[in-house]
Amino acid sequence: MSHDAVVLGAGGWGTALAVLLADNGHGVRLWARRPEFAEELRRAGENRPYLPGVPVPPGVEPEADLAAALDGARLVVLAAPSHGLREVVRRAARYLCEGVTLVSATKGLESETNLRMSQVIAGELGPKADRLAVLSGPNFSAEVARGRPTATVVAAASREVAEEVQDALMSERFRVYTNPDVVGVELCGSLKNIYAIAVGISDGLGLGNNTRAAVITRALAEMTRLGAAAGAQPLTFAGLAGLGDLVLTCTGDLSRNRRAGLRLGRGEPVEDVLDASGMVIEGVRTAVAACSLARGYGVELPIAEQVVEVLFHRKPPADAVSALMSRVPRHEIEEVVVPPLDWKP
Questions:
Q1: How many CB atoms lie within 10 A of CB 112?
Q2: Which residues partner with 75 through β-bridges?
Q3: H/E element holding 198?
Q4: Mean pLDDT, to the nearest integer, of 160-176?
Q5: 341 Cβ neighbours under 8 A, 6+ residues apart
Q6: Quick one: CA dihedral 117, 119, 120, 126, positive or negative?
Q7: CA dihedral defined by 200, 251, 46, 189, rounded to 10 degrees?
Q8: What is the pLDDT of residues 105-138, one digit of tens each?
Q9: pLDDT digits (tens, 9 = 90+) for 56-96
Q10: Any idea which of 36-45, 269-278, 335-344 has the lowest mean pLDDT?
Q11: pLDDT recorded at residue 336
Q12: Which helix (H) or strand (E) holds 247?
């Protein structure tokens, strides 16, 4: 089988996307950073650490040699963790064909620069990133890999690129919508992890359903406020990438960020929570970057700021709740400037 698609990153999400592409008839190379892990994937026929019980189909070829993985690829999905994406893209740059279509499936902000992942990719690849799309939505990898009905969003500046990626990923079990709002879709996917930690803390404290609903709703307001300041469409935050992913990550038992918040709310030390996870908790790094980004735009993110206080300044979770509840009275509805947005010609 010819391999026209490559997934860079063999964690749970990268493996799920490789399975999806293979089920859609693509020959897929799944690149793993460690040769021994690629060999384990090949031998076991499943990703036991990150996606146990899900068979990796014959159409997926695990590969640790980056040059071999990218040889002849026309569609490259980037699924490395946000803190490692720049290095992966930098290493891959020399092997990418001209005109390759790239899909960023990584959610987060780069902690050193506050950049979105598409900005990191474009900065490393220059013109080779001309055909770049981003993928985000309420997508737990285990459910996608097992064929549970799922919807997602692909955003790109070019309608042609967005529809190409839509066609590659769309199936009877994975419904893909397109959107020209790259900034909004990426910020949705990044910011929701912060608020999943916040909701987890609330639930861990036993504060109840009223509190959970209030945190999710005000989280959406914070996300939309920052997005609009950054040039995103507010309506994007009411869609799958925004509200959909926010609700999933804040309430779903498979959410690593929610689980971390639950443990914090129950009184476990931050160090123990982070050390015991064994997986990347994207909301931790993203919280600091998002608050820094918001300060640059003159935007307030009260919930995110309290998450940072709990994670990095040892603030007791109950005190963070009190700080939020004692803020000065505000109007709920704020005027938001809606920037014009459409596909590029």
A1: 10
A2: 5, 101
A3: helix 182-204
A4: 97
A5: 180, 181, 233
A6: positive
A7: -90
A8: 999 999 899 999 999 999 999 999 999 999 999 9
A9: 999 999 999 999 999 999 999 999 999 999 999 999 999 99
A10: 335-344
A11: 67
A12: helix 245-251
Nearest Cα to Cα of residue 248 among 140, 108, 107, 104: 140
| Assigned token pair, 6 | 């490559």
Spot the catalytic one: 107, 128, 192, 344. 192
The CA distance from 184 to 223, in Å, is: 9
Q: Quick one: residue 264, left, alpha or beta (phi over 0 = left, psi -120 to 50 = alpha)?
A: alpha
The helix (H) or strand (E) run that includes residue 324 is: helix 317-325
Query: What distance in Å separates the CA atoms of residue 241 and residue 263, rounded to the nearest whole number?
Result: 26
Average pLDDT score, the chain: 94
CB 113 within 8 A of CB 138: no
Encoded tokens for 272: 């123990």
**pLDDT tens track for 270-320:** 999 988 766 678 899 999 999 999 999 999 999 999 999 999 999 999 999
> Is the CB of residue 128 less than 8 Å from the CB of residue 96?
yes
pLDDT of 1 reads 47
* Inter-residue contact 133 to 154 (CB < 8 Å): yes
- The structure tokens listed for 5 are 């698609």
pLDDT value of position 65: 97
- Beta carbons of 177 and 154 less than 8 angstroms apart: yes
Instruction: Assess contact for 141 and 128: CB atoms under 8 A.
Output: no
* Under 8 Å between Cβ of 220 and 204: no
**Of residues 184, 200, 188, 101, the one with CA closest to residue 139:** 188
| Domains in the chain: ranges and CATH | 5-180 (3.40.50.720), 183-325 (1.10.1040.10)
Q: Which helix (H) or strand (E) element contains residue 135?
A: strand 132-136
In the DSSP assignment, the letter for residue 341 is -
Would residue 344 show up in a list of annotated catalytic residues for this protein? Answer: no
